[in-house]
Amino acid sequence: MTTSVRTIPRPGTYTLDPRRSTCRLTATHVFGLKPVTATVDLRGGTVTVADDPAASTASAVLEAGSFRSDDERRNRDVTGRKFLDAEQHPTIAFRSTGCRRGESGWLLDGVLRVRGVDSAVTLTIDVAESTGDGCHFVASATVDRVAAGIGTGRAIIARPVRIRLDLRAN
What we know:
Elements: E1 12-15, E2 22-29, E3 34-40, E4 42-49, E5 57-63, H1 72-79, E6 91-102, E7 105-114, E8 117-131, E9 134-144, E10 160-169
Antiparallel strand pairs: 1-4, 2-3, 2-10, 4-5, 5-6, 6-7, 7-8, 8-9, 9-10
């Protein structure tokens, strides 16, 4: 998807609004036969839009214990010790390490911290636009959950987990 360039946000630092932002996760379950969709709550974060977009930065923190799917048992399992271990690691964090123009739009490279393990991730910026009260960003990535520190459950959930962030910032 090509990055929306209708109105690039004005340079400045914007605070992510957890009440108006969503993080959706999609993976396959049961040997890849059944899709699973879940959400995780955003705790907070910032986006700094630079005069030169390549110098822009972002950070975000998610609540590991807020994982919600259509199955309460799955929710308990994913937030439990074998997967996210939300009691010992209550947050999932992202911090950017670089922003660059790709073939079909902007990419935001960064470090994802899950269960105390850092892994590289690249977000594709699908939308970056000014709004009447701030900015709207939509970004997506595919994360290898094993590289991100969650090695259990091979037959339960596939390795690639797709993430889609729909973020509002003031």
